[in-house]
Design brief:
heterodimer; A: alpha/beta; Rossmann fold; seven-stranded mixed beta sheet; 17 helices; 32% helix; B: mainly alpha; 13 helices; globular; binds adenosine-5'-triphosphate; binds magnesium ion
Chain lengths: 523, 316
């Protein structure tokens, strides 16, 4: 066979090998990378696995030039290089899709793609050229994106597609994917995997981070596992089992199955009757939505992203006004109440966009733990905050939910993605709510913490909590829910008992091709 | 009949004056628009205008060359903008405070220089009104009504209005404008694709300050043709408010500028006609209107999300 060209189809020089050696990165109170060795080769998809806070993003940010290592070196094709900023890494052909969106939200998709790139017209923007190229890429890889759409109007799944298009457009020789699938639907995941495999076959090197072991097995050639900033080891994916990986990651056995005991239904906690909601663009996002959720019950909401789930959660939380219809909580008409009034009536809400809606980034962990309740006893006395109680409360939650943080005073933005999610969950459950909306509660959360969160939700269910679980992970919905509401285009396609419905039936309903109704098992 | 004629003449006069007086507002507020779109609130506009007014006046009276005078205003604007940028972008000082410092510096310095280098209030010949003559005997300014309103201004006034579409073009249609808008909205995202956040902000602040220098010059060597201590009298601060009022868009800013210059014109004519509108009111009015305008939520939504926030990579 002839020598492989050292150019990629896109014309970029390929990255034959890249090594990170003895990388050390210290943050106040944390050793995020502890003499880490890591390497990746052209044509491979290399998984980086580890619990929340293990140091995956940190290591990748060092590679991308966002962080500077305290010690260690990076070697590209045998030559040591220094990467001082993303400008350098982009120059070497290293691209990255970040765990949190890196999009400017008040400009268009095309503008986001063009940002930082040379224009074919010099000083003048060539958005028409960029748009045409985006459409080409979208066509080629089956990614639906509209170059003229403003980012703030897009759902998270669509935003993730924009990030992928951004990376494809730049044609990185080595692409870091920091939890790119966390916000995608199963169908979308399949689609992007095709793209990733194609890239690897073309000679790109890919680093793939995910907490979903199924994905690791479906996609990757090798796996490196990080634990507490140290590299536990690198193995061939084909040589290990899920249980092996879980063990390497957590250092103990992890239960991958969930047991849901029979439900003890109580009174109706949430009731929605013929609710209609219209978004800012005048589109109807919920149509004649009626539902009852009982005490002691978890009702799952299944649907392809963008079919009204977000609108449903935000409407119940009081963040969006209803056009018509009524909502009751504990028998009280709460239609049109403000978010604060809803929280005071016993609602808890774990939002989907956690960085944006769930925490105040610059507030400390302890402050974030009392965001809605700071004004009440026991956290305040008169106009004064009771810092001692707040501290105890935070300390309790941090240890109960195993939130990994150097201290209570650490600003929330410095926690790893999964730990921010645990913080929000801890706060919302600790309020002992009457009704809980959990939107994608385990998105981006490691398997150990997922196990814990699932157990918490089931525990609260046993204690009589009524929960609406919105998730794109069908396995999660089926495992935890008693009943499942399927949404399509803002309309209910059916309310089914989760033990009686098949995944195929759910898929058809989610695609809007079938309606189903089942009598409620117990009531 | 006669009464009607004078009414029309007064209205024409007010419109003419309104367009003329919009000049400094436009230069200053469009400049501030660039700065704010990049995420930097420059409260020092008034101080830069004072210095620009002084230096252009001084150069004009010494050399008689108005273009050289204008260049002097631009240079002092660039220098003061550079200072503001170093302090607020590189050293990440509180922007409100450093802006006020810049204002006080400009106020004190221009007064001091005036006292030591010029001494008394004198006039100069500034930029004259353009004529647009088609033939020897017919100039566009002679067209009834329209002529007086549109064809009898100085080159700086036309420049100020021309700057509106230029600013739209720069912000919307150039790679630089895209960078400026992005670093003002989400600097992390811009940084992650290799855009130098600080460089884009430096450029925007310096351009904005150069325009503020021209704004000052437009008063001292075109509209009024004198220099007095504290002659800017709040226009620089109004310009900052105009950016909010105009919703951070050059066209919005233009309408705001016209609104407030027309109020000033009304006030001048009020004096001519013996109606007494206090100048204090006309200085207050823009702020009151701006506060009212900002209370409308959709306007606030246009505010650059990173305005006043210095950028550093999230390493600490
Ligand atoms: N900018 C920062 N300042 C301080 N500490 C930080 C910073 N970034 C990360 N850390 C800490 O470094 C550790 C590793 O974080 P990192 O984000 O790399 O984890 P991760 O493996 O990506 O986790 P996740 O799966 O939750 O995304 C965590 O303890 C985190 O709190
Ligand atoms: Mg991470």
């Amino acid at each position: 066979m002839s020598e492989k060209s050292n150019l990629l189809p896109s014309g970029l020089e390929r990255i034959e090998s890249l090594q990170m050696r003895g990388i050390v990165k210290r943050f106040p109170g944390v050793l995020a990378s502890d003499h880490v060795d890591f390497d990746v080769k052209a044509g491979e998809i290399h998984a980086l696995l580890g619990e929340n806070g293990a140091g995956k993003s940190t290591l990748m940010k060092i590679l991308y030039g966002l962080y500077q290592p305290d010690e260690g070196e990076i070697i590209l094709n045998g030559r040591p290089i220094t990467i001082n900023s993303p400008t350098d890494s982009l120059e070497y052909g290293i691209g990255m899709i970040h765990q949190h969106f890196m999009l400017v939200d008040n400009i268009t998709v095309a503008e986001n793609v063009a940002l930082g790139m040379k224009s074919s017209r010099g000083f003048r923007l060539d958005l028409d050229v960029v748009s045409a190229r985006i459409e080409e890429l979208a066509e080629k890889y089956g990614l639906q994106v509209n170059p003229r759409a403003i980012i703030s109007k897009l759902a998270v799944g669509q935003r993730q597609r924009v990030e992928i298009v951004k990376a494809l457009y730049r044609g990185a020789a080595l692409l870091v994917l920091d939890e790119p699938t966390a916000v995608l639907t199963p169908q979308e995941v399949d689609d992007v995997f095709v793209i990733f495999r194609q890239m690897a076959a073309d000679g790109h090197a890919l680093i793939f981070i995910s907490h979903k072991l199924d994905e690791i097995f479906a996609l990757t050639d090798r796996v490196s596992v990080l634990r507490d900033g140290r590299m536990v080891g690198t193995v061939n994916t084909a040589d290990v089992t899920k249980a092996d990986l879980a063990n390497m990651m957590v250092g103990r056995e992890v239960l991958l199955e969930r047991v849901r005991p029979p439900s003890q239904l109580g009174d109706v906690r949430l009731k929605m009757d013929q609710v209609n909601v219209v978004n800012d663009d005048g589109q109807r996002t919920l149509k004649d939505f009626s539902l009852e959720v009982h005490s002691g019950e978890i009702v799952g909401v299944a649907g392809i992203s963008g079919n009204g789930q977000r609108s449903l959660a935000r409407t119940i939380a009081g963040l969006r006004a209803v056009e018509s219809g009524k909502i009751w909580l504990d028998g009280r008409d709460v239609t049109g109440l403000s978010p604060a009034e809803m929280f005071n009536s016993g609602l808890s809400y774990i939002p989907e966009e956690r960085m944006h809606d769930g925490v105040v980034k610059d507030f400390s962990v302890a402050e974030n733990m009392i965001l809605q309740d700071y004004i009440r006893a026991p956290f305040s006395k008169g106009i004064f905050l009771d810092f001692k109680t707040i501290e105890q409360h935070a300390g309790q939650l941090i240890s109960d939910f195993r939130v990994k943080t150097p201290s209570q005073e650490t600003p929330a933005k410095n926690l790893s993605g999964g730990n921010i999610q645990k913080l929000i969950l801890a706060r919302e459950l600790a309020r002992e709510p009457r009704f809980l909306i959990a939107a994608q509660p385990t998105r981006g959360v490691d398997i150990g913490a997922t196990e814990y969160i699932h157990n918490q939700l089931l525990q609260q269910r046993a204690n009589g909590l009524a929960t609406l679980l919105i998730s794109e992970d069908l396995d999660e919905v089926k495992a935890l829910s008693d009943r499942i509401v399927v949404l399509f285009g803002g309309e209910i396609m059916g309310i089914v008992n989760s033990d009686e419905v098949t995944t195929e039936e759910l898929g058809l309903m989610m695609a809007g091709e079938r309606r189903m109704e089942m009598p409620q098992a117990t009531a | 009949m006669n009464g009607e004629l004078t009414t029309i003449a007064i209205i024409l006069g007010i419109i003419h004056q309104g367009i003329r007086l919009a000049t400094p507002y436009l230069f200053a507020a469009l400049g501030e628009t660039f700065s704010q779109r990049s995420g930097v609130l420059n409260l020092g506009v008034e101080g830069i205008m004072l210095m620009g007014a002084f230096f252009s006046f001084y150069v004009a009276s010494e050399t008689g060359n108005l273009w050289l005078a204008l260049l002097a205003a631009i240079i002092i604007g660039v220098l003061m903008g550079l200072f503001m940028a170093v302090v607020s972008i590189t050293f990440q000082a509180e922007q409100g405070i450093s802006g006020i410092g810049l204002y006080l510096f400009g106020l004190g310095m221009s007064s001091l220089l005036f006292k030591t280098m010029i001494g008394s209030v004198t006039g100069i010949t500034g930029f004259s009104e353009l004529q647009f003559c088609v033939t020897d005997s017919f100039c566009l300014a002679d067209i009834p009504v329209l002529g007086e309103i549109f064809f009898s201004h100085s080159i700086l006034t036309y420049g100020a209005f021309l700057l509106v579409p230029i600013s739209v073009w720069l912000l919307k249609r150039t790679t630089w404008g895209l960078k400026v808008r992005s670093v003002g909205q989400n600097p992390e995202a811009a940084d992650s694709v290799g855009v130098s956040v600080n460089r884009a902000r430096y450029a925007a602040v310096i351009l904005g300050s150069a325009l503020a220098g021209i704004a000052g010059a437009s008063l001292s060597i075109s509209l009024l043709n004198v220099f007095q201590e504290n002659m800017i009298n709040g226009i620089g601060f109004i310009a900052v408010a105009l950016v909010y009022f105009g919703g951070w868009s050059p066209v919005g800013v233009m309408f705001g500028a016209l609104l407030f210059s027309t109020i000033s014109a009304l006030q001048l004519w009020g004096q001519v006609l013996g109606l007494n509108i206090s100048s204090n009111i006309s200085v207050m009015l823009p702020y009151i209107l701006t506060i009212v305008a900002l209370a409308i939520p959709f306007r606030r939504a246009a505010q650059p999300a990173a305005l006043t926030k210095p950028f550093s990579r999230g390493e600490n």
